[in-house]
Amino acid sequence: MRSWTEWPKLLRSVDPATGLAPVPPSTPVLADQSVRAIHRRAVWVLAAAQVAGGLGIGAAISVGSLLALDISGSEVLAGGGSTAIVLGAALLALPLAAVAARSGRRRSLSLGWGLAAVGAAVVVLAAIVGSYLLLILGMLLAGSGNAASLQSRYAATDLALPANRGRDLSLVVWSTTLGTVLGPNLSEPGRVVAEVLNIPPLVGPFVFCAVGMALAAVLILSLMRPDPLLLSQQLETDQAMIRVAAADSPGPVSDVPTATVWSIVWHVPLARLGMSAIVLSHAVMVAIMTMTPVHLSQHGATLTIVGLTISLHIAGMFAFSPLFGWLADKRGRLVTIAVGQLLLASAALTAGTSGDSESQLMVGLFLLGLGWSAGLVAGSTLLAESVPSHVRTRVQGTSDLVMNLAGAAGGALSGVALAQIGFGGLNAVAAALILPTLLFSVRAVGRPG
Fold this sequence. Notes:
This protein is mainly α. It has a single domain, classed as Growth Hormone, Chain: A (Up-down Bundle), CATH 1.20.1250.20. 78% of the residues lie in helices and 0% in strands. Helix 8 packs across helix 9, helix 13 packs parallel to helix 16 and helix 15 packs parallel to helix 17. The longest helix is centred in the first third of the chain and has 41 residues.
């Protein structure tokens, strides 16, 4: 950022019609091609980190509930492992967003992935000593990887052009595919690793989890230079300060209370719709997905079938995200959100009526992933562009906080629901959560976006 001594020279040539002054050649504002190159580099670094970190997330998802069931011996507590991951992501969403606002995406995301690697190591220790509480602690820390993965999608929009914002966000989401699809299929290699290390078989995949998340932290920390968020803030601040100084009016607020963030989201219909799509699509997905491995094991499915089912689900979550990014850019965010809600409803119907049919359940979980992807991509894009820039990072962190709290609640209650009303009843209750988003969509019809 330029010093205050430079502003009087700039303001002498302010155009009174536009409130803008010419910007010296040394500023990045004029280097549009350079900014685009920095943006492309940031997206590729984010994508590489998502592949490595996604490997850890996929491994944790596939055996988290089974490991919790094995250690606790309780069906009700089986959802505790996956729930702790989601809850950990929620608890760390705002702190990581605060680090990003203060020090940039590079430090925030590398910190998130690093904490997740430590958490995976704690899970391994918990399995060795047979401690459920230590397992939950490790899963909470491992949830930091989810928080970092989610906030990476917003990092892809920091320098993105408005017309390509959905595409760029979806590309980072898509890059998670390779790691998260391979992760659930690491049960057998994990067993081999567990034998070599003389640790319980189910905890073997968490060794891969720790390595993948540590690698993601190293990639972000070493390669994401310059920081896209800090550069974006500098460019916006430079232009805003010229306008403000020319108009002799106060500048944008750098920080706002949490109550104000909520007020802004609630009173901006498109922001409210975007957050609803993100939060409730995630709650539906987590509630159904968490208990799917348990439901399959109750019907005699092997770990191979469990891994394949979760892999198909994760493929639906990430592999087709560029399609939804394209749809959001070309046909609108509202249309894409509505498509997502219909996919979630279809998923709940298919999975909930599958009984002991493994193939039908696989189809249901694949549809569930597609619905989540559409809601996340379109909702995140809509939210990022519908709130003022000076509160955007806070709103993004708050969105991820609520998203993961909703997912944690869905995961925690899914075990109780499975025990009380069965897998079909669980799907029916989860499907009802799409109704608020559909209502907000109807109210937002006719608005831009």
